Amino acid sequence: EMMKDVLGLTLLENKLMERFNLTKVIVVSGDSDQSPWVKKEMGRACVTCIKERLNGKNIVAVTGGTTLAAVAEMMTPDSKNRDILFVPARGGLGETVENQANTICAKMAERASGNYRLLHVPDQLSKDAYQSIIAEPHIKELLEMMRSPSMVVHGIGDAKTMAERRRTSEQDFNKIEKGNAVGEAFGYYFDQEGKIIHKVQTVGIQIDDIAEMSNVMAVAGGASKAKAIKAYLKQSLDSVLITDEGAANELIRD
Ligand code: BG6
User: Fold this and answer.
1) Nearest atom (ligand 1) to Cα of 93
2) b/e map of 161-192 (b: 16 or more CB within 10 Å)?
3) Do 100 and 52 form a contact (C-beta atoms < 8 A)?
4) Quick one: which atom of ligand 1 is closest to the CA of 225?
5) Does the beta carbon of 155 sit less than 6 angstroms from any atom of ligand 1?
6) pLDDT digits (tens, 9 = 90+) for 44-96
7) What distance in angstroms lies between residue 101's CA and the mean position of ligand 1's atoms?
8) For ligand 1, is residue 95 a contact (CB within 6 Å)?
9) Tens digits of per-residue pLDDT, 106-129?
10) 189-220: per-residue pLDDT in tens?
11) Ligand 1: residue whose CA is nearest its atom 5
């Protein structure tokens, strides 16, 4: 029974790699829409992936979200004691405290026995105040690390769910809806062809920065996120996809 299960997952991983032209896919069993522990399993798989990619000095940029919170929960210290600095990937994206990139970043560092840097720049500032804050040397240095980390670990959200969860203005909400956005990552909303419909204005990593990077890990599962994951994969970023059976079964369906 167990062997059959493992083979089934490997088959799903191979199908996804082929269909979406990915170099690495991990599928954990179950559907995180149905069972909360599946998110933790994705978290565990992600932690393994992070550790496989650690080098001498590491800067790991992380986004917010409940999935990344599960990754943080499963984090453990590096057995080889390598240097890890966790930073948020982007500025405030309107999440509640426990799901904010800053919080997740601190939690991951604590569990990994690593270090972290937090970004304290409010997004709703006048242009002048904003410009002078980001010119502060320690903030400038952090922003540079956020844009060129050695690894990025991020979630993918359903567009409408994310627009609702953030305090999205009516104007932006309409834009997201009219543009038929289905997926969201790093504050970018995509339609099913992968076209960028809207982008949340904030500092930190941009999609063009990610396109240049080799260690990008996307963690997202649940059958309800299949469309969102598909839209994100249209970006053709060289990402590792960590997902679950629920999403994987939908993704290979035509
Ligand atoms: C947010 C990220 O914090 O989490 C988004 O900014 C991401 O880019 C989202 O899509 C995913 O959230 P969850 O809870 O579905 O893992």
Assistant:
1) 6
2) ebbebbebeeebeebbeebebbbbbbbbbbbe
3) no
4) 15
5) yes
6) 999 999 999 999 899 999 999 999 999 999 999 999 999 999 999 999 888 99
7) 9
8) yes
9) 999 999 999 999 998 887 778 898
10) 999 999 999 999 889 999 999 999 989 999 99
11) 185
